[in-house]
Amino acid sequence: MKIKFIAPIAALAAAGLFTACNPERLEIPQKGVVTVESFYQTDEDAQAALVAAYQGFIWNVCSKGDASTYTPYRFVFNLCGDDMYAAGAQFGDNDFNASMNEYRYDTANDVVRHAYNGLYYALYYQNLVIDNFGYREDASDIMKKAVAEARVLRAFTHMMLAIGWGNPPLVDHVLSADDNPYNCNTNPENPMTHEQLLEWCANECELALPYLDERQGPTDKAGAVKVTSGFANAVAGKALLFAGDYERAAKYLEAVISSGDYALVPGDRFEENFHIEGDANEEKVFEPNLEYNASLGDWDYINRSTWMESQMWNWRSDKFVTSPTTAYSSVEGWGGCGVPKAFADEFVENDGLDSYRLKASIRNIEDVIYNTVYGDPAIDGMTLEEKKQNSTLLGIKAQGLYGQSFYLPLKPIAKTTDLRNPGNNVRLNNFTIMRYAEVLLLYAEACVMNNEPEKAFPYVQELQRRANSKTVITSASELTMDVVKREKKLELWLEGCRWADLVRWGDTEVVKTAGDAVPVMYDKLIREPQANDENVRWQYGSEENSRFYTVDTHEAKDRGSVVGFKEGKHEHFPFPYTVTSINPNLTQNPGWTN
After folding, report:
1. Are the beta carbons of 569 and 561 closer than 8 angstroms?
2. Which of 3, 137, 232, 591 could form a disulfide with 205 if both were Cys (CB 3.0 to 4.6 A apart)?
3. How far apart are CA 4 and CA 201, in angstroms?
């Protein structure tokens, strides 16, 4: 078998990913895709094709989109929640993110376009394996296993397309150049509703289960970076939960739990889940492995890393008088993630200030300013009271921190150890697709909806105790959907769950005012409140006992934009204009116009 790297233009054009007649005008950088010049024949071929499927998943789902969106999958499933601001230097900075966060994006939005395209790119790789080995009478055990792993990856990919876009095309084979796939619900040959597509995803996982390896216990690192029976059961359970089939969902999710192959890390190691020291730990159900190889150059790694994500998430250090960033990371950030006051207040009220989970997720601005070890004797030698009165060496510059309240995000930033080299923006800790905590919370929801909270009670209690939260349920009768929702909001913050949960729970009231007001945090020692400041909020309620305050801004509305979640429209992302403009069979989602 011969393998070469090309862009599969003919196949992907049919899915609306390229303009087939003019490859010089490709909307996405050409990414290496393995195709074949002759039919796959051997076990070695099957293993090579499976490696390509994993590589395709890393390149197109876990890695960068282009020079503006970086990791679009991460952004598209987080930006529309009520638990973050798409912040930056000022209004207009990183607007492809901010427009989503404020619900003023359109069908040309880069984040939506590149996330959608990347998922279909990944399907191409997966279908190559399944098409060539999945229907052979003489298939060996190695071939069957390769097909099974690709099948689960394909099910996961379709599940996320269904969650994001409602009724996307089902692409279960390599497309030919003249294919123009329909939405799954309008396919004249095999129509599927949204729920039926999710059920199809679960069925694909079921069909794969007999041929998959099981993770060999919580310490099996190899079992965390490949598709196993645990991940297949988790995907099936999540897909069925989103389809509203709670009884079957619980069955699959319980199989993950009862396997004994996964465990929550202790509370004092909670933070490691999001950094390189936690790669493939006992809590990881699946995360593609971004393996370090010193012989590769930076640009080789850019195609298999979360390139530039570190700049997007890390703190905007140039807005501080003295940067606190270097205590955490050698990469200066763009401050693209803000923590809303309402979210931080809820987190503190639920968990308390001594929570491992809170301390690994967000940091109070005073804690950052006063307790950072700067490595400068002039600062580190000051008493706390001296720091509180000092604006020459410590504080926030007069421009303030746009899109920030009184806490800064800690969970998503790239620490120096996560980076390929100090100061380098190539982040190499693995890209977590699912961890055990999510499985437990999905199971808890299924059990509550099945009126069997007693089955999930010990697992939710375990999560709360692991967090060292001050809110811990003590009986099954206390386990309600409100508890599940709150735990999931805090535990899985910025892990791609919140927006989709708000939609399926019908809790979108909280984002109907998104974009109405974006705060800027100021330091009164450097900038006193001004007469035209709108809605001044002091950190501790009054100026007398607060140094930091926020002021509301609403430049998007001032410039004529319509902001906020709209029912009948924002439940799903739009199909990108670059897709609908060349595929006449694809019907745009309700509320969107091209």
Report:
1. no
2. 232
3. 30
